[in-house]
Specification:
The protein is an alpha/beta fold and about 180 residues long. The chain has one domain: 3-Layer(aba) Sandwich (Rossmann fold). The chain contains seven helices and five strands, in the order βαβααβαβααβα. The relative contact order is 0.25.
């Protein structure tokens, strides 16, 4: 078992440029100290400099960092593309073993909107439309209907508000970490 009955685990998944990192940062800003951001991009691309492939080392590292943070009493927002076929088993185990509430969200953005959003990102020149098209998976949901789908028409403030209220983070005080 991992975490406590008081710790919250929030999983944010979706395609590239769906707003996962921005929503995660909004939750952190709203909540304050005591909330760990566990980002797939940071652990996979920065820490390990690894390609996203089945069985890759980042899957275990993401799991370890999330578990460690929960065990240390932090609430965790775990965000990334986190393809269901590659990360699903790890996410299901983490969800099943977390003692506190776990909430999973999938940010659904149509491909044309993905392209428009991607064009505003710092890596826009490094990643082509062809690569984005290759990576794009519409509604790549985890089995068991465990994810709440949030569509592209939900503005950032509304999405953060919804998640803060759904998870109970809006009612909890920031922690002294």
């Amino acid at each position: 078992m991992v975490g406590t009955t008081q710790t919250r685990l929030v999983v944010l998944r979706g395609n590239s440029a769906s707003g996962k990192s921005t929503v995660a940062a909004g939750i952190r800003e709203r909540f304050g100290r005591g909330l760990a951001l566990v980002g797939q991009d940071n652990l996979r691309r920065v820490v390990l400099r690894e390609r996203d492939r089945p069985g890759a080392a980042n899957i275990g590292l993401i799991d370890t960092v999330a578990r460690y943070s929960l065990d240390a009493g932090y609430h965790v927002v775990l965000e990334g593309i986190l393809y269901a076929d590659r990360y699903g088993q790890m996410l299901q185990r983490l969800r099943a073993e977390h003692r506190g509430p776990t909430h999973c969200y999938y940010l659904e953005v149509p491909f044309p909107e993905t392209l428009a959003r991607h064009a505003t990102k710092p890596i826009a020149d490094e990643v082509s439309e062809g690569q984005l098209r290759e990576w794009y998976r519409p509604l790549d949901l985890l089995p068991g209907s465990i994810e709440t789908v949030i569509h592209a028409d939900s503005i950032l403030a509304d999405t953060v508000d919804r998640i803060m209220h759904d998870t109970g983070l809006a009612r909890l005080p920031a922690l002294e970490h």
